[in-house]
């Protein structure tokens, strides 16, 4: 029986079948040849299917590695081009983007649109289906209640931009307010009016790629 062209595993199986068949009594040569041919075909199909599965798995692994490499480049670009700080928190990432607001204002500034556009692009490319939470902050000018409302207005303004201009799903983007939360200030105590304290009048963007996120925000006067 010729086993040329078979894989070592298949050839060994065929040889074993031949040895076993040779020990049997009353088996016609034609029946033996037919059975061995059937075994050979079945094992060849199995080898081909295994090869196809392995090739598919290798392709998926290569694709995943390429996407991971591209994600690393895109995140590094956010850091380098926009001075964005990125914090990893388990299945979440917080992007401390340089998006700030004028004193007692909640309008997205023209100079801050580029980083929001880039952020939306990264989310669309790499975090489809993730929940995005915009956290709004204020400085300490005014009452805590006012600041909660103003922080919410700022977060809502950024949410509106990311949805309408950035193309993110409205169902997956939400806005919360931390107001004048002193534990989250960039420069503790820095307060307006004017340009003073602008670093505290900001938003942070949180990507939760588990598909959901708990936490919440309020409503509130911060300037």
Question: Helices and strands in order, then pairings?
Answer:
Blueprint: H1 8-23, H2 29-82, E1 85-89, E2 92-96, H3 113-126, E3 131-137, H4 144-164, E4 173-179, E5 203-208
Parallel strand pairs: 3-4
Antiparallel strand pairs: 1-2, 2-5, 3-5
Helix pairs in contact: 1-2, 2-3
Question: What would you note in describing this structure?
Answer:
This protein is α+β, with helices and mostly antiparallel strands and about 220 residues long. Helices cover about 45% and strands about 15% of the residues. It has a five-stranded mixed sheet. Helix 4 (about 145-165) links the parallel strand 3 (about 130-135) and strand 4. Helix 1 packs antiparallel against helix 2 (about 30-80) and helix 2 packs antiparallel against helix 3. The model is unreliable at about 1-5 and about 210-220 (pLDDT under 50).
Key terms:
223 residues, disordered N terminus, alpha+beta, 5-stranded mixed β-sheet
Q: Could you give the order of strands across the largest sheet?
A: 1-2-5-3-4
Number of separate helices: 4
What are the low-pLDDT stretches, counting only 5+ consecutive residues below 50?
A: 2-6, 211-222
In percent, how much strand structure appears in the residues? 5-15%
Radius of gyration: 31 Å
Number of strands: 5
Mean pLDDT, rounded to whole units?
Answer: 84
Helix/strand-derived category reads alpha+beta
Choose one word for the global shape: rod-shaped
């Amino acid at each position: 029986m010729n086993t040329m062209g078979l894989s070592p595993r298949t050839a060994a199986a065929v040889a074993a079948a031949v040895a076993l068949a040779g020990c049997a009594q009353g088996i016609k040569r034609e029946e033996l040849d037919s059975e061995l041919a059937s075994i050979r075909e079945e094992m060849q199909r199995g080898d081909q299917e295994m090869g196809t599965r392995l090739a598919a798995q290798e392709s998926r692994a290569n694709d995943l590695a390429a996407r991971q490499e591209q994600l690393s480049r895109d995140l590094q670009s956010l850091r380098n081009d926009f001075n964005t700080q990125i914090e990893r928190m388990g299945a979440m990432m917080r992007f401390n983007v340089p998006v700030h607001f004028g004193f007692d204002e909640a309008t997205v500034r023209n100079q801050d649109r580029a980083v929001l556009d880039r952020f939306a692009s990264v989310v669309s490319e790499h975090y489809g289906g993730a929940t995005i939470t915009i956290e709004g902050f204020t400085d300490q000018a005014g009452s805590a209640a006012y600041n909660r409302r103003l922080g919410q207005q700022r977060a809502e303004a950024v949410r509106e931009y990311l949805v309408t201009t950035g193309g993110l799903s409205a169902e997956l983007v939400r806005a919360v307010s931390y107001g004048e939360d002193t534990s989250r200030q960039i420069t503790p105590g820095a307060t307006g009016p004017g340009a003073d304290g602008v670093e505290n009048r900001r938003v942070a963007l949180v990507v939760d790629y588990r598909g959901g996120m708990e936490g919440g925000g309020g409503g509130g006067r911060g300037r």
